Amino acid sequence: MKKEYIKPYIRKQTAGVMNKFGVSYNKGHREEIEGFHIGDFTEKFGSPVFVLSEKVIRERYRKIYSYFSSKYPKAKMSWSYKTNYLDAVCSVLHQEGETAEVVSDFEYQKARRLGVPGKKIIYNGPYKPLESLIVAFKEGAMVNLDNFDEIIKAEEAAKKLDIKASVGIRVNMDTGVYPQWSRFGFNIENNNAFNAVKRIQHSEYLHLEGIHCHIGTFMMEPSAYKEAVKKIVQLMRRIEKEFEISISYLDFGGGFPSKNILKGTYLPPEVAIQPVENFIDAITDTLLEELEPKEYPEVYLETGRAIVDEAGWLITTVDAVKRLPDGTKSYIIDAGVNLLYTSAWYNYHVEIDREIHGAYENSIIYGPLCMNIDVVVESAFLPPLPKGTRLILSPMGAYNMTQWMQFIRYRPAVVMILEDGTVEQIRRPETLQDIVGPESVPEKLKRFQF
Ligand SMILES: Cc1ncc(COP(=O)(O)O)c(C=O)c1O
């Protein structure tokens, strides 16, 4: 067989930063996802296309919930809508038994539309319009308040309904991980949280039911959860004693990491990311140490990315190959930062759809946007990719399909591989009508001539 000609190139040698862990983990190629050929996805649904796996979502959820519930008797999980609120994804998790955790009136309405009863919704977030609080109280949602102005707003909503509404408070604290997430909720150490409870308990229209926190996201250190549990149990004890009430739920939010590659980390995620069990142990072991069985409250987790991130891939196609003036190899693909908000902090795993021989080199992967910021992967160690090669970027399931923006290009299809072995489109590609639908042009601007 005639050997394929590969154009030689001269590469300037630079010492670079010493890295004893080796160059890269981008050496793989992948021809299929769960038995479906990569090319079949793009042929049928276009390129780029997001692919989600029902099986992986269920597996990840079950792994976390079964361990959590085996370690604590009143374990509950609530799906963090903002992580991925596509109807099909939420439906899989609701079928598994997860309630809905929302942070806006829009997400609240989305959960209700899917059939989640108000009583099974946790309503979090720093901004809750008055009207949405009225609906949430009327429907019996768990509302976690963020600040003193919101306590007053919640009081007004309950007064309008003439009820005494149950509320929770979100708290923040020093868990030994910096920078500390202190902008959400009431601080424990400076007594803000206790004062908030005082204000609630003195209100004619509110009473305290629970305590909520979310200490950060992509947390690498389980001991931070241990600290959070200790401080929250201490606060709970103080509240119960002072106001003679019993707290019925504690909610430790989300924050467990996925196997994504955080920029700036040397070690591959298989080594750098601790198993989810270690995080659950930190929470449940501390709870069991600190509490008497008769006082066990319900304990919620709102785990987002650790459930869904690894259940998603993006298939995208190389549209052009370019060498930059400094010699760097670069590729232009058909998916950009408009779809990949998380590219700001992750170095995605990059796989190619075929085996390609030739010298590997560090390459930049640009998106299709006419914007300098549109860099999808700053440095991927790749063989020479011909135009038309499909790249499979992962993990993709968390935060991209909610934080994507309509900028310059349409958003593409999202498909789900179902457990019955079929593939279904769960969000069609956008069309011009989806974007111009809400727009209107004032009458006097309707005519122009060149
Ligand atoms: C209140 C709350 N709960 C849960 C989550 C989910 O977090 P993660 O995806 O890190 O698990 C978030 C995300 O920011 C959040 O703000």
Task: Tell me about this structure.
The protein is α/β, with parallel strands linked by helices. The chain folds into two domains: 32-51 and 310-428, Lyase, Ornithine Decarboxylase, Chain A, domain 1 (Beta Barrel), CATH 2.40.37.10; 54-308, Alanine racemase (TIM Barrel). Helix content is 29%, strand content 22%. It is built from 13 helices and 20 strands. The chain has helices at residues 38-45, 54-71, 87-96, 105-113, 130-138, 148-161, 192-201, 223-243, 269-272, 276-290, 305-308, 400-403, 432-436; strands at residues 32-33, 36-37, 49-53, 75-80, 99-102, 121-123, 142-145, 165-172, 186-187, 206-212, 249-251, 298-301, 312-323, 329-333, 349-352, 361-366, 375-382, 390-394, 413-417, 423-427. Strands 3, 13, 14, 15, 16, 17, 18, 19 and 20 form a nine-stranded mixed beta sheet that branches. A hairpin with a 5-residue loop joins strand 13 (312-323) and strand 14 (329-333). Helix 2 runs parallel beside helix 10 (276-290) and helix 7 runs parallel beside helix 8. It is globular, with a radius of gyration of 25 Å. Pyridoxal-5'-phosphate (PLP) binds next to helix 11.
